[in-house]
Design a protein that fits this description.
- By secondary structure, this protein is mostly beta strands.
- The protein has one domain: Lipocalin.
- It has an eight-stranded antiparallel β-barrel with strand order 1-2-3-4-5-6-7-8.
- Strand 3 and strand 4 form a beta hairpin.
- The radius of gyration is 15 Å and the shape is globular.
């Protein structure tokens, strides 16, 4: 089914978006197994003005895993539609090696974010704390459904109290 890409937030103040986010839920991804817990993402600016992405989680064995990547706006002047690469720097030029990271919804206080890909395959619900109240969670997931994301396989990220950030 061919459908238009979902809309993103109208405005994004990148400095306010930077910092630590905790994954509350996600659609399955091959490089993030379902048994990962305590998933966090830390965004910061690197020396070139790109966004440094540090993803951390505990795997099923309890070992801390980390991926470092870089994100850049897909279109200049629109930081709500990012392209992210986790390849080594020398390989990031290769076409089709970047993933789409579109900010679909963001609360005014920059505490909760819904992020997805324009092909409707990837989705993340993020929050500034590792736990989120049920009403906010349900409201953001309702937005995802309204936009056309299928949530049948949604993974609720387990947070055990171990900090990754």
């Amino acid at each position: 089914m061919n459908r238009p890409a979902p809309p993103t937030v109208d405005a994004l103040e990148l400095p306010r978006y930077l910092g630590i986010w905790y994954e509350i839920a996600r659609l399955p991804m091959r490089h993030e197994p379902a048994d990962y817990t305590d998933v966090s993402a830390t965004y910061s600016l690197d020396g070139d003005g790109a966004i440094r992405v540090q993803n951390r989680a505990f795997d099923g064995e309890g070992t801390l895993q980390e991926s470092i990547g870089v994100a850049k706006p897909a279109n200049p002047g629109d930081p709500s539609r990012l392209e992210v690469s986790f390849l080594p720097e020398g390989l990031r030029w290769i076409p089709f090696t970047r993933g789409d990271y579109w900010i679909l919804r963001l609360d005014p206080d920059y505490r909760t974010a819904l992020v997805g890909s324009p092909d409707y395959e990837h989705l993340w619900l993020l929050h500034r704390e590792p736990v989120m109240d049920t009403a906010t969670r349900d409201d953001y997931l309702a937005t995802a459904r309204e936009l056309g994301y299928r949530l049948d396989a949604l993974i609720e990220t387990r947070h055990t109290g171990r900090r990754t950030a």
